[in-house]
Amino acid sequence: MDLVLDADQRRFRDEVRAFLQDALTDGLRAGQSRVIGVYPEPDVSLAWQRKLFERGWAAPTWPVEHGGTGWTALQRFIFECECAQAGAPLLYPIGIRLVAPVIMAFGSPEQQARWLPRILSGEDYWCQGFSEPGAGSDLGSLSTRAVRDGDEYVINGSKMWTTHAHHANRMFALVRTREAERPSDGISFVAIDLDTPGVEIRPIISIGGDHDVNQVFLSDVRIPAENLIGEENRGWVYAKYLLEFERGYGLFSGRLRASLRRAEAALKAPATPAQRRRIAEVAMELDVFEMLELSVVGTLPNGAAPGPVSSVLKLRASRLKQAVTQLGVELLGADGVRRVEGSPGNILVTDYLNARAATIFGGAAEVQLGIIAKALGGL
Amino acid sequence: MNLALSDEQQLFADGIGRFLEKRYAFEHRRQMVAEQRWGDPAIWSALAELGCFGIAVPETAGGFGGGSVEIGLMMRALGRHLAIEPVAAAVVAGTLLGGTEGADDLIEALIGGEMRLAPCFDLVCGVSGVSGSARSLAGGHAAHGLLAACEQSLHLVDPADVRVTPVPLLDDTIGVDVVAEDAPSRRLEVGADWPRHRALAIARGQLARAWQALGVLEGALDATTAYMRERRQFGRPLGAFQTIQHRVAEMTVAAKEAEVAAMLGALVLDAAGPGADAERALSAATGRIAAASAIVAETAVQLHGGMGVSDELDISARFRHLQAFRFRAEAVEQPVERYAEAVVASGAHHHSAVLVEA
Ligand SMILES: Cc1cc2nc3c(=O)[nH]c(=O)nc-3n(C[C@H](O)[C@H](O)[C@H](O)COP(=O)(O)OP(=O)(O)OC[C@H]3O[C@@H](n4cnc5c(N)ncnc54)[C@H](O)[C@@H]3O)c2cc1C
User: Fold this and answer.
1) Acyl-CoA dehydrogenase/oxidase N-terminal domain location, by residue (chain B) (predicted)?
2) Which of these, A308, B195, B279, B299, could form a disulfide with A375 (CB 3.0-4.6 Å)?
């Protein structure tokens, strides 16, 4: 067991650095530095994705056969760390990191050929239609219905909190295809083109005052039956698989460190000893979280699902996001009340507000604790 | 970089774990603690045979040349079984002696388990002898020698030549208060790299205590989880209540954090040696393991009800050990203070904690 990068790993790191030096423009960096929600806006993230795509690096978690890098988990760790350190935009993960593993594992060869290349190139922008007005934590009780009609499904219902639906052209969604004794046994996993008649998208404004999430209304939306992914009524299995990638497959430590840097940069005077101690408390947590990510994600085989430990990662990452953003507003002091559009202070305030969502989306903290107690504690 | 244990590391850890599982009965420990003993000589000899005291000594000095990971795995196993024997002191002593010339006799006796040495960093080594005082010194009770690790030199002091007062400590071990006034000593030959050896010894001591605490808290978590499955109230296992599940889950998360914190400390110390990077990693590790210790210790006692606050089970001993770890590390203040002054002030925390340069 050792941390020292060997010659190959060092060469790889230098290659990444050289690429970043070359490809990462000030404009892209500035775009990332203004992020106040979960993800950058598509003009920023897609511009960066195109550069990565040209280099063959858009999908570090995919196998080579689908156009991924085929990197080891450790290479990916180094890559993400260097990208975050350099201030590169965060790639929008809902296509690449969330739905792609499901398509690869459970989709047909036709579906793989139809969707994966367009996810990779950024031509398709997916959103996630899981939650509904009546089904959040208890996702299995969802009621959006899909009824088979010849070669089509007819979908009626509504999806809620759909991040970036207003930017997306496709949505993967969980829909009810049968009434079963266990509600989760009657769910299917489908893809919906958002330009289909009957789809209506309405914005929901966040606690920070911006537009990231939406409610999506589906009225008699007809999708071809070939948009069913995997088997009918097995959607719950695929959803749980996807959630492991959502919760425990991102590498957040570098991004959190960049947020910490941004918070400190807003200080008008050198940090006082008391401020340095507060920064130290958060940075110490972050150092240990980085080791957690390295030891869990950094040792997975390429493309493998992380398992229930993903809930530990999710819980730690979300709490740290809140700790970092909370520190950001603490450092602003009384200026934390000022909301001057575009000012560095307001970016921190907005990020702080929006970070309250981190322990709610992707499964609330309480839900993660329940999973940890059952899966890891045997209770 | 490689994050898997080597076969040798796995074998070493398994060997110690199996031995303690078989031989380290809590009843026997209870009796030793009641009699205020330093530990069990038979266990000590057996640990010597398992290689525990040569691990910290470089091969060139006659030891087994283990690194922080081996030391950590050993201490974790000892912590899990709540061993009271002063193995952490032996790790520090071995590291110190590894930086000497002509102390082969001491090294041999240390590795063989014939000599128990208590390292001490608080004394002053003057021309007329060793002076100063130390409080609550671990491993000093019934030790064969004190190792005064001064900034420029290393001295072996006979406990008979100083005032040594045993003090029972919170973690059920016996420490000593030492007062030395121009005590005679054997001066051990050290080289130009002595300051580095001394710094390494301090770092390993900190690391050893952290890994030991990790073992203690993992034991508390497992015992609590098992108890929550078995203990029935209101017609069902306590673990069926959501509030219990969430508290056990918080313990699980804390224990996982403590585990990777301990790994961080060990791996950075091995990769970068004593210095700024190791200081950062060890501060973070100590601070976070201390935080995890508080969560795990308090929840474990609470969820055991009356049994948790009695001496019937080992839970109360685990609580005492973990609090002693926190007090000794001055966990609430010191690691944060050090990190703030050494790391935040220099901006090093803006860079990865794990991708360190060798
Ligand atoms: C910013 C943001 C972006 C999102 N993006 C998406 C998206 O793109 N796609 C998508 O499908 N969904 C998305 N979501 C929805 C998200 O997954 C849900 O909000 C989440 O699952 C919680 O559901 P809920 O909001 O209905 O809360 P509820 O289920 O009503 O729960 C309310 C609160 O009750 C507590 N609670 C719930 N269940 C339990 C329990 N079993 N035990 C103890 N306490 C409990 C928790 O504290 C929880 O926060 C997003 C949400 C947010 C805030």
Assistant:
1) 6-95
2) A308
Highest CATH level, class, for A124-234:
mainly beta
Chain B residues whose CB is inside 8 A of the A294 CB are 3, 354
Q: What is the mean pLDDT of chain A?
A: 95
Query: Which atom belonging to ligand 1 lies closest to the Cα atom of A163?
Result: 8
Helix axes A7-23, A42-55, angle to 10 degrees: 130
Q: Which residues of A touch B13 (CB under 8 A)?
A: none
φ/ψ of residue B225, rounded to 5: -60, -45
Does the fold of domain B194-351 match that of domain B7-190? no
Q: Which residues does residue A173 pair with via DSSP β-bridges, in sequence order?
A: A129, A190
What fold does the segment set B7-190 form as a domain? Butyryl-Coa Dehydrogenase, subunit A; domain 1 (1.10.540)
Distance CA A231, CA A187 (A): 10
Q: For residue B271, what are the contacts with CB-CB under 8 A and spacing of at least 6?
A: A2, A3, A4, B277, B356, B358
Helices and strands in chain A, H and E counts? 13, 8
The answer to whether the Cβ–Cβ distance between B225 and A378 falls below 8 Å is: yes
With 0-12 / 13-18 / 19 or more C-beta atoms within 10 angstroms meaning exposed / middle / buried, residue A104 is middle
Total count of residues recorded for chain B: 358
Give the Cα separation of B88 and A128 in Å (integer).
52
Q: What is the CA radius of gyration of chain A?
A: 21
What's the token pair of residue A271? 């940090």
- The answer to whether the CB of A206 falls within 8 A of the CB of A357 is yes
Interval A49-91: pLDDT, tens: 999 999 999 999 899 999 999 899 999 999 999 999 999 999 9
Contact A96, A239 (CB under 8 A): no
CATH architecture of B194-351: Up-down Bundle (1.20)
Question: What are the extents of the domains in chain B?
Answer: 7-190, 194-351
Helices (H), A192-272: 235-248, 253-265
| B118 in Cβ contact with B143 (< 8 Å) | yes
Paired tokens of B90: 């032996």
**Protein residue with least CA distance to atom 23, ligand 1:** A136
Q: If you count residue pairs, one on A and one on B, with CB atoms under 8 Å apart, how many are there?
A: 167
A372/B contact by beta carbon, under 8 A: yes
CATH annotation of A252-377: 1.20.140.10
User: Tens of pLDDT along A85-136?
Assistant: 999 999 999 999 999 999 999 999 999 999 999 999 999 999 999 999 999 9
Q: How are beta strands B117-120 and B154-157 bridged, if at all?
A: unpaired
Comparing A124-234 with A252-377, is the CATH topology the same? Answer: no
- Domain boundaries, given as residue ranges, for chain A: 7-91, 124-234, 252-377
For residues A321 and A35, give the distance between their C-alpha atoms in angstroms, rounded to a whole number.
13
User: What span, in angstroms and rounded, lies between the C-alpha atoms of B304 and B315?
Assistant: 8
